[in-house]
Every structure is written in structure tokens, then in C-alpha cells.
Amino acid sequence: MLTDRQSKILKAIIDRYTVDEQPVGSKALAELADINASSATIRAEMARLEKLGMLTKTHSSSGRLPDDLGYRYYINYILPKQGGMIDEDLSPDALAELRQIFSSPFVEMTDVMLKAADVMADLTQYVAIALGPAMDNHRLARFQVVQVTSDKAMAIMVTDKNMVESQVFQLDDEISFAQIEDMVQAINQALVGKPLVEVILELQNNARRFFTDNYSDVFYENNIFNYLLKKIEGDRLRIRGRENLFNQLANSNDYLQIKKINQLLDQPQYLVSVLEPPQDGIQIQVGGELGNDNFDNLSIISMRLNLGKKDKDMIFAVLGPDNMSYLKLAQLLQSFRREMFRFENGKS
After folding, report:
1. Is CATH 3.30.450.40 what the domain over 92-126+241-347 is classified as, yes or no?
2. Could you read off the pLDDT of 94-126 as tens digits, one per residue?
3. In the CATH hierarchy, which fold is given to the domain comprising 4-81?
4. What pTM does this model have?
């Protein structure tokens, strides 16, 4: 554990770096009444914090910047002492914008997700991510194939949550459409009502139960089932405000990082694996904790929203630079949670 003075110095550096994004020197810290130490004493403490891996020194300045371990200590041990501030109300304008999410009735939970992501991105000026209920809550309601031209057909998968995905594929000259319809009927008779993950595994592992070798090529060479499954998984995810983050990263001229982050944001499986906050409370992941070098100098703050029904369990998150104001973002997420519960209770 850090000493009281070291904690105050670390907090002051992070707070100041959050505002002006410039290295912080001992002279500036010595002017703070809360620290009450000379520049020489502060420099010595900063050197100790650097050895502990909590601060890093830039080449062009004697000032220090927070490092991942410093942010982690700040999140785990310094922010909790300010925890009461998280429950403070947002500004009237921010609260009004947040409440717009619930200003009209929604037919689907995806409407809530999409609108919430838009508002979160606007309020934070970062990337807002909304992750809907887990796919394992979806069961197969119907599988269907419709012929669209003489040589093409469309595979359609419908879940019990009224999620519909489709994919066009090429027909095989050696197989009649009537034979394909027989396969579809066999799939529906055996698999309707089962979780989607089980459906895909059953089709992969026991193909002969539904297809002859020739027939299976129609679906597997086109990767129909895996494609539909990935589309359904992707529909869990709503991402807004990419341009906010890219505009900030553009200042570093690291366009390769921007390109790679954009690619990662297009990979639902990766984001789903990262966004696993606890049942209650807020989770903050910093830099290397995200498991990908391309997320260095970035953080994700996320919150699980459980409305008492497993099929409505959602996750909301904000992706931004590691010097973003965690306290303000936690306050925003908590306010969103309160408004969401107020909306749900008003409907019941």
C-alpha cells in the first residue's frame, strides 16, 4: 500500500492529466495545499512511484504520466474513498438527455440498446457499447429456406425472441429444391426449441442425421449455419461514437492503432469476452488488462444491468483513453441504471 502522501501525489497527477493531458511536474504539485510538501520531497516520491510501475517519465519532460498500475491503484484504493460522489445527480441537461432514451415505448430491447448507445456516446464523447442478452437465451423457433432465383436460395433462422437472420447461398445443380425442403423439415422436427448453440453443434457433429453427403455440401460449403450464428451474436452488440475515439487518437498520429482498434470493434466475440462485469457494481479495465496490445492507453468502464429477468440482462460500457474521468463515467452509468429501473417499474 502507498503512504498517504504517495496516494495524494498519484491522485493529483491522474486528476491533472485527465484535464490537460500533459506530464505533471513536482513544481505544479508543490503548489497544492493538500500535498503540503516541497518540490524536492515530491520528486523523491514520484521517483518511488515510478519504480513501483505506477508512473512513467516522458523523454521530453521531467514530468510524469500515470501508468496502468497507477490507474489500477487509483481505481481500487483512491476512488472508493470518493464513492459517495457517484450517487450525485447529473447536470440537468445531461439528465434530460439520458431520460430521452425512455421517452417513448419500445417494442424490442434492441431499441433501448441502440438509443442508449447513441446518448452515451454523445454525453461522453467516447465509444459507447451496448451488449444485449446472451445468445444462449435464444432457442430455434424456425429454420426456413426460400428459393429466390433459379440458382440461389435464402436461409432464414428465427429465434424464440423474434430475432431473424438470413443468408443467400448458391444452389447445387445436382440437388432439387424439394430435396432441400426435406432437409429443412428434418432440422425443424429435431431441433426447434433447442438453444442455438446446441443447434449448431448438433448440425456440425451429426450431419448425417439430417443430410446425405451430397446434401450437406449445400449448407456447409456456404457456412450457412455458422454465418447465421455469428450474425445473431453480432446483433447483441451496438457500438456508437467510434469517430469520437478516432478523433482523439488522431492526435498521436498512430493510424495503425486506429485501424486495428476499428477491426477489433468489428469482432463481437472479442468484445463479448472482454465485457464481463460483475452482477452488481461497475468494472474498470485499464490498458493491458484488456488482453490486446492495441488497447494500450485505453480503458473500458462497464456495468451489468440486470432487470430481474435472465433474457433482459444487458451490459453497457464506455471505451476511451485511460485518462478519462472514471468518477464522472461511473456517475453516468449509475444514473442510467436508475433511469432504466424507473422505466421498467413504470411499465409494470
Report:
1. yes
2. 888 888 887 766 556 667 778 888 999 999 999
3. Arc Repressor Mutant, subunit A (1.10.10)
4. 0.71
